[in-house]
Amino acid sequence: MPKRIFLVHPTPLAMPPVEEAFRTLWREAQVLNVLDESLYADVGANGELTSPLYARLASLLRHCEASGADGIVFSGSTFGPAVEEARKGMTVPVLRIEEGMMDEAVARGGSILVVSTQKRALPVIRGTLDELAKRAGKTPEIKEIWVAGARDALIAGDNDRHDRLIAEQTAAAGDFGTVVLGMISMAPARAKMPPALAAKTLTSGEAAVARMRKVLGE
Questions:
Q1: pTM for the predicted model, two decimal places
Q2: Do residues 147 and 116 share a domain?
Q3: For the chain, what is the domain count?
Q4: pLDDT by residue (tens digit) across 140-151?
């Protein structure tokens, strides 16, 4: 029987890149999407997560578990702390979509550039990277950039402008050992980068699929 993997999203923008990663790396998995746009609508302006948001996210994950999930991937970086809390005590593996990518970034060593189209997600991503580096006994140079206007372009349906802005601003940020694209919706932008830059750029979808396969012994 194919493994049943639930993908939980706070925005429909995340769905196509994750589905593409599964088609490319784990076509045999049965992939099911759960979307709740109200999660992002209720996040504070600076990324604050309220107690009711923690409870609602936990309820979503438990729904997936009760629906026969073998594994669950949550695609919103902003909600990292809530996912960490909600997965405690669950009987199936629950992954933050970005955690495998960030583990790989730290393991590679060297400097890291974090690129995000959601400004409020940057503190969560940076905090996770800092914690992973501390556990690994490393002190990498980490720089963060917010690509203003890119997310608005994507919402408006201008995917080309979205990808181009990310590629251009990533290239202009300087030379780093590893580039981390903080939002799964940013993954297609890697195709717009020069080959040398694309080769050191990590996307969260591919890393999440690889980690879930490993966790489930596939």
A1: 0.88
A2: yes
A3: 2
A4: 999 999 999 999
